[in-house]
Amino acid sequence: MSIEFILRIIGMVVFGLLGGYFGVDLSKITTITTEEGAVIFGLVGALFGLVLTPLLTNRPLNSLRNLLNQLDTRTLGSGLAGLFVGLVIAALLAIPLSRLPALLGEVFPFIGVLLFGYIGVAVFISRRNDIFSMFGGRVFPLTERGGKGGERERVILVDTSVIIDGRIADIAQTGFLVGELLIPRFVLDELQHIADSPDGLRRQRGRRGMEILADLQESKTIPVRISDIDVEGTREVDSKLVILARQLSCPILTNDYNLNRVAEIQGVPVLNINELANSVKAVLLPGESVEVKIIQEGKERGQGVGYLSDGTMVVIEDGKEYMNEDISSTVTKVLQTAAGRMIFARPDEVK
């Protein structure tokens, strides 16, 4: 039985009784009898309560809850602190304001509560970073947990795509990821759904992700925590991750391009594994020497194509003649594209 159904029943009874009392009073000045007035207006009130109760109670509360869920910890905490300070100032001013002439003494204290409450919230939210930094180590965001020696530990939200990708295990072993990896339950549910997919390739990727997750939990390099924390109001995993990252003021670890863009638009920091991989690729400049094995033909006539150990494509002019051979070549041009870095070179020796 849902809370909305219960509220409808309560609203139907309450408005039905109010309608019945109103019908009894109205029957005294009309030609209808008391019983008729009570029944007619009681039924109208019950219908009114049944239809409009959720609009007056449950739905506004859900909207307010969804709004609060989208606020990060610092914004929410600063807003509440500003509201408290504003109400204290309004309460102190209410005494002298209440001594004003009749109408002004009644209206001005109420206006003061609204005005100073709004000013307190606005000022504290706009200066939230300064306020939190002023308290230093005494006030922490929810993302910072106590570590060894009282040091603060960063929390990193993990996306499903990163677990399936598998490179996160190798990166974690290197020690470059600092903090705790937080895997929400809804991410784990999505991973399990992929592992149970009827499609063979998706099922294989999902099972590989489960193995990677198990390896991460066994590894002592970085702590991994699976949490039941959830976000109401949306079913999309990406949307939940973005909202949760804003609430916890923490970054998202992903290699999903769309999630990356959406998170950046909403001001959520992103750790993208693909960008990290592109950043650590070997940098070769024109004139430097590179050794590569030609494994296929290029698009242009006579070209040969090979790959470096990090996956960078190397296009060799007149390299078709060296098919399946390791050759030494000189870099002539380096081209950065959306798909990655491409290197053009020519053989040091010509057949």
What does this structure look like?
With 351 residues, the chain is an alpha/beta fold. It has 4 domains: 60 residues, no CATH class; 64 residues, no CATH class; 134 residues, Rossmann fold; 59 residues, OB fold (Dihydrolipoamide Acetyltransferase, E2P) (Beta Barrel), CATH 2.40.50.140. The chain has 13 helices and 13 strands. α4 runs antiparallel to α5 and α9 packs across α10.
Query: How many domains?
Result: 4
Number of helices: 13
Overall body shape: elongated
CATH 2nd-level architecture of the largest domain = 3-Layer(aba) Sandwich
Oligomer: single chain
Name of the top-level CATH class of the largest domain: Alpha Beta
Q: Please state the CA-atom Rg, rounded to the nearest Å.
A: 33 Å
The helical percent reads 40-55%
Mean pLDDT: 81
The computed structural class is: alpha/beta
What does this entry show, briefly?
This protein has 13 helices and 13 strands.
List keywords for this structure.
17% strand, 54% helix, five-stranded parallel beta sheet, 4 domains, six-stranded mixed beta sheet, 13 strands, 13 helices, Rossmann fold, 351 residues, alpha/beta
Present the secondary structure layout.
Layout: H1 3-27, H2 34-56, H3 58-69, H4 73-98, H5 102-126, H6 128-135, E1 145-146, E2 152-153, E3 155-158, H7 160-165, H8 167-174, E4 180-184, H9 185-195, H10 200-218, E5 224-227, H11 237-248, E6 252-254, H12 257-265, E7 270-272, H13 273-279, E8 289-293, E9 296-297, E10 304-307, E11 313-316, E12 326-337, E13 340-347
Parallel strand pairs: 3-4, 3-6, 4-5, 6-7, 11-13
Antiparallel strand pairs: 1-2, 8-12, 9-10, 10-11, 12-13
